[in-house]
Amino acid sequence: MATTVYHVAASLDGYLTGPRPAAGLQAAGPATGVEDGGDWLSIVDPASVGAIVMGAQTYRSFIEENPAAWAFGTIPAWIFTHHEFPGIPGADITFVRGDVAEFHPDIAHDAGVKDIGLIGGGNLAAQFLDSGLLDEVVLTLVPVVLGGGRPMLPVSNATDFAVLSGSRSHGPGLVELHYSFAR
């Protein structure tokens, strides 16, 4: 069965993006949000995922910046949105509206034995966690404090302690933490 993994880069105070761009953020490595260019999406290895899930804002960053640079080839991508968007030529994209639990079995089927890579969008990741469908979080901490903005994981319910299954440092001051949720 596919493992659902939230890949996210966030500031030290837990935000994906701030109320305004932080000075020097681009020079620090992966940005902390799609408004900053989406470069942080490089933290996901397309070879490890069988399906990608993202929200409207993350997808919008792809089509506004450079749809020809779609990093996921023909990996099935599921976009949760209430908006109408164009597709990307050559990409396998499904646009959906509704509860994540309704679509999770189909997404898991697409992923096969590989991971479901959830990228961008704290609200979408929170829906997966609140529904009991988020298995792991791969968090890259970016050494900046934003003081507000879009939260990394705005859940409505507390969880038990996640288990730290790995960590590593990379880039200028970046730390990657890999957590698993006990089921």
What does this structure look like?
- This protein is an alpha/beta fold and 183 residues long.
- It is built from 3 helices and 10 strands.
- Strands 5-4-3-6-1-7-10-9 form an 8-stranded mixed sheet. A two-stranded antiparallel sheet has the order 2-8.
- A hairpin with a 3-residue loop joins strand 9 and strand 10 (174-180).
- Residues 22-39 have low confidence and may be disordered.
List strands and helices in order, with pairings.
Layout (H helix, E strand, L loop, with lengths): L3 E8 L3 E3 L31 E7 H10 L11 E4 L12 E4 L3 H12 L3 E5 L2 H9 L5 E7 L7 E2 L11 E8 L3 E7 L3
Parallel strand pairs: 1-6, 1-7, 3-4, 3-6, 4-5
Antiparallel strand pairs: 2-8, 7-10, 9-10
Pfam families: RibD_C
GO molecular function: 5-amino-6-(5-phosphoribosylamino)uracil reductase activity
Protein name: Dihydrofolate reductase family protein
Primary descriptors:
183 residues; alpha/beta; Dihydrofolate Reductase, subunit A; eight-stranded mixed beta sheet; two-stranded antiparallel ribbon; 3 helices; 10 strands
